[in-house]
């Protein structure tokens, strides 16, 4: 009845190969006169989702999370992960090969400084390290008396016998009815930003920025409609786009040619040399561009202007068409999700349903909208202790039945008019007093963000604590940000906007973010409640400053069976009842009668 077409539940890496592959890498390094190697989980675009050909870290270690860094030394090797992945790393990686280290305890650069021996030569692939990140290693290497050696070829590639070929997916045009703005207008705004910054050109290495600026999409990586390529946008004149010609139909090539020159990616090096010969001032994002590009430009004679890619900020603030598309996508997705939740309530208590079966069902309901292009990430379908892993990915090896307690489903969809991301934690059977307490504290934090009102200029870091206070009051917390930016038929994780201790970008009307506090009791259960919100202006009588707040975009019931009502105050209860009334009013007409009957009960006042 149900199937998954856009996600796989097969294990993609083999931890048992960690020891022999590490030995082979050390032997290859030794042949080159090297004592070690630095390997980030990255490609030359610094994507979160990598093409299979770039999953070098997973091939070497067995770790499949979205953030990781490996340092190999003659007698030691370490895998660095953040708080989302500490448990997963222990489960996936052979400790005989790699020590798993939380970056909160030691950064890779600090570990290198403390563990490398003076005189050692450590190799690195300059196409995979950001300029900012690599400079931290340069300081650490200098302190340790270590020499960092740039390599023309990644040594992992030579060892990876069955490495997949680089992607060659077709590039498509993103219709202006969805984009809301033509390429010429976007380029005009980008060039105006370059003029203000007194830059002669912008080097675009972020594929998301490339896709947005030129209204193109692709499928070179899973779950994010990206065409992998580069661009050079001058402050005056025509930009150049560097895309593999095999990806371009005649229609796409003709459309791109109206606003830009088109060249192969291999021609980028010559373009950078030309900028250097002209002694151009080139804007480059040091946090997102590879050190290889920066070094090439500097060596050629260009002046680097280090700063954020202005496209990222322009892309983050959605226009009228993108906002309308986001609302339509969320409503469409809500109907599919509510059908799933009604079905889940009927099937889970029978005891036969497992994590994969639930994920397949939800994807099927979404496909039945007739609009689904992909899931926006592999669904986190997690029961029992698996839900305590914030970024758990179910495989056939880890798949378990949904048993009494909490079931967490974090999922999303890619539609041409918008990208969705939603998490609901569902009670199967009954929840314990402790579970209801934790669920309600997470809900209180969620409501605190949803109802936040704040002045212009406030960043996500300043409101992140709103979501944590109810947990802090019980001596609890969660090890991930409260919210991330979301793209418009682009990445489900978009910067620079975010609600996080590290979120320093001021929030502006038109930005879309997630609101997703959680709680995770390792080995037992996990809780997360996530909706997407849109920053909007708020009119407050007597206000002395321009004020903002959030419009909630996601529409799906929050399971009242997980709530301890006594922990909610009057305003919180009123918010929940209003939200559920809205869900019923807007989603109810879009679903079948059985789902509508379930929805009436799920959305009844607390």
UniProtKB/TrEMBL annotation:
Signal peptide: none annotated. GO terms for molecular function: metal ion binding; metalloaminopeptidase activity. One of its GO terms (cellular component) is cytoplasm. Pfam families: Creatinase_N, Creatinase_N_2, Peptidase_M24, Peptidase_M24_C. It comes from the Bacteria. Keywords: Aminopeptidase, Hydrolase, Metal-binding, Protease. Residues 21-153 form the Creatinase N-terminal domain. The keyword Transport does not apply. Residues 546-606 form the Peptidase M24 C-terminal domain. The keyword Disulfide bond does not apply. Residues 326-536 form the Peptidase M24 domain. Belongs to the peptidase M24B family. This is Aminopeptidase.
């Amino acid at each position: 009845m149900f199937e998954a077409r856009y996600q796989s539940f097969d294990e993609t890496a083999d931890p048992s190969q960690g020891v022999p592959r590490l030995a082979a890498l050390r032997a290859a390094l030794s042949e080159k006169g090297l004592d070690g190697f630095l390997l980030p989980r990255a490609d030359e675009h610094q994507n979160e989702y990598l093409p299979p050909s770039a999953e070098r870290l997973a091939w070497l270690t067995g770790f499949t999370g979205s953030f990781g860094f490996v340092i190999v030394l003659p007698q030691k090797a370490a895998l660095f992960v953040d708080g989302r992945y500490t448990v997963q790393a222990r489960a996936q990686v052979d400790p005989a090969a790699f020590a798993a280290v939380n970056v909160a305890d030691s950064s890779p650069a600090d570990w290198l400084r403390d563990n490398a021996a003076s005189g050692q030569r450590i190799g690195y692939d300059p196409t995979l390290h950001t300029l900012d990140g690599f400079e931290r290693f340069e300081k650490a290497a200098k302190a340790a008396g270590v020499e960092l050696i740039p390599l023309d070829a990644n040594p992992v590639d030579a060892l990876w016998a069955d490495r997949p070929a680089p992607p060659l997916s077709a590039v498509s045009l993103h219709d202006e009815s969805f984009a809301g703005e033509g390429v010429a207008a976007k380029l005009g705004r980008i060039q105006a930003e370059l003029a203000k910054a007194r830059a002669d050109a912008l080097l675009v290495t972020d594929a998301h920025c490339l896709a947005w600026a030129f209204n193109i999409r692709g499928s070179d990586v899973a779950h994010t409609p990206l065409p992998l390529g580069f661009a050079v946008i001058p402050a005056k004149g025509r930009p150049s786009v560097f895309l593999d010609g095999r990806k371009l139909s005649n229609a796409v090539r003709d459309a791109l040619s109206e606003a830009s020159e088109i060249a192969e990616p291999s021609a980028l090096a010559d373009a950078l040399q030309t900028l250097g010969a002209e002694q151009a001032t080139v804007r480059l994002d040091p946090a997102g561009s590879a050190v290889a590009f920066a070094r090439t430009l500097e060596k050629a004679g260009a002046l680097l202007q280090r700063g954020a890619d202005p496209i990222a900020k322009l892309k983050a603030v959605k226009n009228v068409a993108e906002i309308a598309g986001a609302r339509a996508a969320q409503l469409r997705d809500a109907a599919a999700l509510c059908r799933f939740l009604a079905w889940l309530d009927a099937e889970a208590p029978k005891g036969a349903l497992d994590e994969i079966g639930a994920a397949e069902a939800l994807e099927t309901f979404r496909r039945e909208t007739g609009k689904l292009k992909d899931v926006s990430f592999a669904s986190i379908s997690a029961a029992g202790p698996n839900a305590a892993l914030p970024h758990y990915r179910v495989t056939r090896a880890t798949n378990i039945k949904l048993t009494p307690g909490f079931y967490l489903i974090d999922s999303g969809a890619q539609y041409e008019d918008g990208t969705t991301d939603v998490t609901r934690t569902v009670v199967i059977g009954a929840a314990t007093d402790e579970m209801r307490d934790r669920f309600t504290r997470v809900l209180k934090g969620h409501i605190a963000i949803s109802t936040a009102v704040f002045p212009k200029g406030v960043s996500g870091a300043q409101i992140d604590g709103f979501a944590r206070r109810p947990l802090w009051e019980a001596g609890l917390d969660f090890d991930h940000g409260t919210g991330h930016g979301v793209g418009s038929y682009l990445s489900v994780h978009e910067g620079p906007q975010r609600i996080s201790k590290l979120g320093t970008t001021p929030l502006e009307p038109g930005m879309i973010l997630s609101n997703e506090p959680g709680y995770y009791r390792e080995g037992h259960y996990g809780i997360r409640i996530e909706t997407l919100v849109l920053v909007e202006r708020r009119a407050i009588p007597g206000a002395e400053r321009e004020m903002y707040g959030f419009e909630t975009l996601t529409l799906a019931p929050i399971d009242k069976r997980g709530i301890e009502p006594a922990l909610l105050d009057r305003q919180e209860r009123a918010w929940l009842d209003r939200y559920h009334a809205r869900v019923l009013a807007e989603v109810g007409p879009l679903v079948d009668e059985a789902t509508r009957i379930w929805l009436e009960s799920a959305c009844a006042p607390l």
